[in-house]
Specification:
With 365 residues, the chain is of the alpha/beta class. It contains eleven helices and twelve strands. The strands form three sheets. It has a five-stranded mixed β-sheet, sandwiched between helices. α6 runs antiparallel to α9 and α7 crosses α9. The protein starts with a strand and ends with a strand.
Amino acid sequence: MTQTVTLLGLESSCDDTAAAVVRHIPGETPNILSSVVAGQTQLHADFGGVVPEIAARAHTEKLDHCVEEALIQANVHLSDLDGIAVTAGPGLIGGVVAGVMCAKGLAAGSGLPLIGVNHLAGHALTPRLTDQTKFPYLMLLVSGGHCQFLVVKGADEFRRLGGTIDDAPGEAFDKTAKLLGLAQPGGPAVEAQAKLGDPESFRFPRPLLDRPGCDMSFSGLKTALLRERDRLVAEHGGLRQQDRSDLCAGFQAAVRDVLAEKSRRALVEYLALNPTNPTLAVAGGVAANFEIRGKLETICADSGAAFLAPPLALCTDNAAMIAWAGIEAFRDGHRDDMSLQARPRWPLDNQAPAMLGSGKKGAKA
């Protein structure tokens, strides 16, 4: 590994259009030369969630502008790059197609290699980008669309210990915000309200804690909150502000407790592998929640493992993580051609049974 590698990364799997340039000189810390993210919050605000068709159209309109801005900020030209990495799945297919087609056009026009990247691998390898974490480490990938525990053994070697069998925590946060009349994205809105509430006012269930293993479920928790909200509305003729805050606090506490206990169990399995530098890393949008982070730090301290969370800007979807995952794949000799396809489903651990079922296009996660 003697070659300096500089890649352009593109990300468009959900509702953030992003481009970034990352350079890595062997033996040195990776350098994020630029990271541009164009969010779509206002476009989806009136719908209470991401509308796939609107997201895909916005990606198509913004991708080239993000690429141009990323190159300008990095002070590089296409001719200075070694390749182009792009999220090829999983995600909302319209957005993934937009990114893949943009990357193909850039690769064809410049003659640069093309590297298709699994969006989940981008999150899972973020600790390598930020802290040069050594393999193997335990990753809790917790976001709007995904939640799973992964033992990251290599840049393309993942073992899943468990995950959500229904809603991901980020999705549950978004739905909770919608049920309570809060703004989207739901995670920050619910967290802000929870700070004003009493987590003991409502005792919500902690799903699957009575069963062994690391699998999780958040759909029932969301339903319990809906029933409690409806009861309060019927009793008081509406939802009082303090009740809203208390509901958020109780909901967040339930998610925190589930993630903490399942993380403890996952750590037991991971530590049985006798890793040299035991580490639990967390990535994905929900990793930005300070209440959840604090609980995970405590679990790690009790287990004798280091805790690692990326900077907040790298918790949510971004292209720097895609560029870095591309660099890891590039160094392993991976290249794609113009037959690269966008994939709505793309599990990291192909040996593990599908968490959410499967269909003609394969396992969802």
